[in-house]
Amino acid sequence: MTRVLILAGSLLMLQQVAEGQFIKSRDLQQDSEKLKMCMTRAKVTKVGEFEINPKYIERVHQYNPDATFVISNDGLTECGMNGGTGKYSPLSTTGENWGWHFIRPQQFKPGIGTPEGQTIAIKACGEAAKAKLDRPNFDHYSFFMPREMPRALTHYTPQQAANMAKGQFHMVTDGGLSVAPYDIEVNGTEFYKTGGMDLTGVSVLCLFSPMMEMKAIKTMDVKDAALPKRKSN
Q1: Which of 35, 180, 223, 224 is the most exposed place for a label (fewest CB within 10 A)?
Q2: What pLDDT tens digit does each residue of the chain (233 aa) get?
Q3: How far is the C-alpha of 119 from the C-alpha of 19, rounded, in Å?
Q4: Alpha-carbon dihedral of residues 10, 16, 20, 21, nearest 10 degrees?
Q5: Would you report the helix, strand and coil content of the chain in percent, each value rounded to 5?
Q6: pLDDT at 9
Q7: Alpha carbons 22 and 34: distance in angstroms, whole number
Q8: Is residue 72 within a helix (H) or strand (E), and if so which, with residue range?
Q9: pTM, rounded to two decimals
Q10: pLDDT (0 to 100) of residue 202
């Protein structure tokens, strides 16, 4: 039975290679003992899923034929025999690139990584904040580029929450807000006419799911803060 399962897995991998597809980490035929040692010495306690390009594996195997791959430190760690120590251990860790990426949840189209997707997110946050505030004399809003929350993040830190009061608007965050990996954060300022030469600002934070569903919106009046450049609307 075990031999049949291994054969089926190998055939699936060969098919994916032939079609130029990324291989899911659970379909890699990695040596279980080496994988266990790699996880232990990379201080990994939970198996993280990823997809990897067969050509990336081929390139690594040219200099590290016994390589195993695990997710650690929010990157892909490659283990192998360390010539300097004589131990099978982590050799390098790389961030996402052409050769591998994390498996993400389904995201809205065209995606937050595109200019069109960023425009959609900014407009959604700006209009939602304007409706929530429901103030007269709206002038315009100005936002930083939306960002995808890190894979390992599960909550905002107290320092991030304190940034709002200090006028540090990129990382405007709230310690009580539940955050999931790959959520979309948009933050910036809504401006309103005051009758004088200057406008008054309201700091805004929007948190969306990867499908652009509103999860939370926070606002706070801004007083005498130097505002950095960002996208205006």
Answers
A1: 224
A2: 333 333 333 334 444 444 458 999 999 999 999 999 999 999 998 888 899 999 999 999 999 999 999 998 779 999 999 999 999 999 999 998 999 998 888 999 999 989 999 999 999 999 999 999 999 999 999 998 998 887 655 444 555 555 544 444 434 445 556 778 889 999 899 999 999 999 999 989 899 999 999 998 988 887 654 444 555 56
A3: 34
A4: -130
A5: 30, 30, 40
A6: 39
A7: 22
A8: strand 68-72
A9: 0.64
A10: 93
Phi, psi of 10 (to 5 degrees): -65, -40
Helix (H) or strand (E) holding 46: none
Which alpha helices (DSSP H) does the chain contain, by range?
A: 2-18, 32-41, 54-63, 115-133, 158-166
Q: Is the separation of the CB atoms in 52 and 99 below 8 Å?
A: yes
State the amino acid at position 96 in one-letter form: E
* Helices and strands (H and E) in the chain: how many: 5, 12
What is the enclosing helix (H) or strand (E) of 181? Answer: none
Find the helix or strand (DSSP H, E) in which 103 lies: none
The answer to whether the CB of 204 falls within 8 A of the CB of 217 is: yes
Interatomic CA distance for residues 54 and 141, integer angstroms: 45
Q: Are 172 and 203 in contact (CB under 8 A)?
A: yes
- The span from the CA of 80 to the CA of 31, in Å, is 12
Q: How many CB atoms lie within 10 A of CB 126?
A: 24
Distance, CA of 111 to CA of 207 (rounded, Å): 15
Residue 179 CA to residue 68 CA, distance in Å, equals 31
Q: Cβ distance 55 to 61 under 8 Å?
A: no
